[in-house]
């Protein structure tokens, strides 16, 4: 099993191999670079690209691409262009900074028949396309993040004639899985040569996703921890593929796993929304506490409300989370506190609103 640090060493091996013994068929290789947005070291690795994966093989003629930063998007566009001479697509790459009312005529002039990129960005971009332009989109490939029900609905309304496919990948190791016409959102079949496993699945089958595949030059990454949470779905798909996996969230952003319990951000959010009169916003810090040799889980919850949060409200917030927060399929946080596996919830009132960040981590695990 390896994590990002372990992967960094493998990534260096691929670069070394490429420069010391350059392959003859350079078209089969590209450089994968992580975006650096997850606040960790940027990873650079050579990658072997199987020709013709996904919609690029049959290919739209005019493709609109919005993938992360402009540099990532350009990298993708150049590479797609380079390996897709057989369909000769034109590619328009847009950055978030480009979204302004004046791009509407540009988009209707370009008239994309295919779109590819992060679904939430594509959904924002749809506001800058007229109905005719959106109707012209026949294929949509979503990558980089999962689809929530509302985002999915919004995209289907925006691009009603698009055949949707989803790709699951990581910048540093490339493609991992792809959806098929029979699978619901966020479910994929592993690509050929890729093995997907789930580490220590809980009662519902959820656990950290591990990926094994060859990156380049026969250098393999084995059981790479991507920090995504998922599960293996039982049964053979109607398309005939034997393995299906589902990605349910990202560790550290949507999930924290601690002392046998899983803390899901969406559950916190649901309880917070239902108790909006008590507090407006929150952040959670989760960690293992050592109490005289006994290790216990501990949560510190910071809450904010304009005008402050009184003692009576703090007691109510405490009660709502202890009884309403299911951290295993059958047990609440309150049950685990009673069993002594967790310390009581600690609520801290803060005076200032929390900073608004793009990759907002509401639940943070402290080590
Ligand atoms: Zn299938």
Keywords:
single chain; about 375 residues; alpha/beta; Rossmann fold; GMP Synthetase, Chain A, domain 3; 2 domains; 11-stranded mixed sheet; 4-stranded mixed sheet; 19 strands; globular; binds zinc ion
Gist of the model:
With 367 residues, the protein is an alpha/beta fold. It has helices at 4-20, 70-82, 103-110, 119-125, 131-135, 149-158, 265-274, 311-324, 333-338; strands at residues 29-33, 44-48, 62-66, 90-93, 114-117, 139-142, 163-170, 174-178, 187-190, 195-199, 207-216, 219-233, 244-250, 255-258, 261-264, 281-291, 294-304, 346-350, 363-365.
What is the topological layout?
Elements: H1 4-20, E1 29-33, E2 44-48, E3 62-66, H2 70-82, E4 90-93, H3 103-110, E5 114-117, H4 119-125, H5 131-135, E6 139-142, H6 149-158, E7 163-170, E8 174-178, E9 187-190, E10 195-199, E11 207-216, E12 219-233, E13 244-250, E14 255-258, E15 261-264, H7 265-274, E16 281-291, E17 294-304, H8 311-324, H9 333-338, E18 346-350, E19 363-365
Parallel strand pairs: 3-4, 3-5, 5-6, 6-7, 16-19, 17-18
Antiparallel strand pairs: 1-2, 7-8, 8-9, 9-13, 10-11, 11-12, 12-13, 14-15, 16-17
Helix pairs in contact: 4-6
The chain binds zinc ion.
């Amino acid at each position: 099993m390896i994590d990002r640090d372990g992967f960094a060493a493998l990534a260096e091996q691929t670069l070394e191999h490429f420069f010391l013994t350059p392959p003859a068929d350079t078209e089969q290789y590209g450089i994968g670079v992580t975006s650096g947005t997850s606040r960790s070291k940027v990873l650079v690795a050579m990658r072997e690209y199987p020709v013709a994966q996904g919609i690029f093989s049959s290919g739209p003629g005019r493709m609109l691409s919005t993938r992360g930063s402009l540099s990532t998007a350009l990298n993708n566009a150049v590479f797609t262009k380079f390996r897709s001479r057989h369909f000769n697509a034109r590619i328009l790459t847009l950055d978030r900074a480009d979204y302004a009312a004046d791009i509407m005529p540009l988009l209707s002039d370009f008239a994309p028949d295919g779109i590819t990129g992060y679904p939430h960005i594509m959904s924002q971009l749809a506001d800058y396309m007229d109905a005719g332009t959106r109707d012209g989109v026949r294929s949509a490939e979503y990558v980089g993040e999962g689809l929530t029900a509302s985002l999915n609905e919004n995209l289907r309304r925006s691009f009603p004639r698009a055949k949707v496919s989803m790709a699951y990948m990581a910048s540093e190791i490339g493609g991992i899985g792809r959806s098929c016409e029979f699978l619901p959102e966020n479910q994929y079949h592993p690509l050929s040569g890729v093995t997907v496993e789930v580490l220590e699945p809980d009662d519902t089958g959820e656990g950290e996703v591990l990926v094994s595949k060859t990156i380049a030059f026969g250098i393999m990454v084995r059981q790479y921890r991507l920090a995504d949470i998922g599960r293996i779905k039982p049964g053979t798909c109607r398309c005939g593929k034997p393995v299906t996996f589902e990605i349910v969230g990202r560790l550290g952003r949507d999930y924290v796993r601690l002392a046998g319990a899983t803390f899901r951000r969406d559950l916190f959010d649901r309880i917070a929304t239902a108790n909006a009169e008590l507090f407006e916003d929150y952040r959670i810090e989760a960690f293992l506490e050592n109490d005289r040799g006994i290790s216990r889980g501990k949560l510190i919850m910071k809450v904010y409300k304009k005008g402050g949060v009184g003692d009576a409200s703090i007691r109510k917030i405490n009660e709502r989370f202890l009884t309403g927060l299911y951290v295993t399929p059958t047990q609440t946080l309150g049950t685990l506190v009673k069993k002594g596996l967790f310390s009581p919830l600690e609520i801290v009132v803060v005076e200032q609103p929390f900073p608004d960040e793009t990759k907002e981590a509401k639940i943070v695990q402290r080590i």
